[in-house]
Amino acid sequence: MAQERTGVATLKGNPITLIGPELKKGDQAPNFTLNKSLVETVSLSDYAGKIKLVSVVPSIDTGVCDAQTRRFNEEAGNLGDNVVVLTVSVDLPMAQARWCGAAGIDQVTLLSDYKDNSFGEAYGVLIKELRLDMRAIFVIDGNDTIQYVEVLSEMTEHPNYEQAIEAVKALV
């Protein structure tokens, strides 16, 4: 059974339980399998050698998640060819694709954790009560070592965009 962590996160002030480990800078990034479409999957090894900014959002169809993804889409073009920006949510791949088309998102790859929540559990951001992934940012270097982690303590708040971008730039 996966580790459960209580008292570390809230939704509008109400406690929620996160499932999985508390990852830290210096940890090896856990492998993942996420859906790019209903049939196409990707894993950590698909981005081997690249710096990965992984932006985790509960649902792309909410205001903060929308703003977070748009912000990283704007920043992505300035980070260089060796950086990939991935947004992970449990939204269905079709909903992610629809949202990207409507929002003009073209620098960020949206990936879905809908099938088995394995990313959320491996990265310690799966919300037990909602089966959504908690808002978080992970910066992973080309050797798949985590160099920056921010797991929000309140789901409805914005991450520290500037610190995440600076963590990426320090690796470029």
From TrEMBL:
Question: Main EC class of this protein?
Answer: oxidoreductase
Q: Name one GO molecular function term.
A: peroxidase activity
The positions flagged as active site in the entry are 65 (cysteine sulfenic acid (-soh) intermediate)
Q: Which Gene3D superfamilies match?
A: Glutaredoxin
Start and end of every Thioredoxin domain? 23-172
EC number(s) per UniProt? 1.11.1.24
Question: Catalytic activity, per the record?
Answer: a hydroperoxide + [thioredoxin]-dithiol = an alcohol + [thioredoxin]-disulfide + H2O
The family line of this record is: Belongs to the peroxiredoxin family. Tpx subfamily.
Q: Which HAMAP family match?
A: Tpx
Summary of subunit composition and partner proteins: Homodimer.
PANTHER family reported in the protein's UniProt record: THIOL PEROXIDASE
Protein name (Swiss-Prot/TrEMBL): Thiol peroxidase
Q: What is the lineage of its organism?
A: Bacteria, Bacillati, Bacillota, Bacilli, Bacillales
Q: Which gene encodes it?
A: tpx
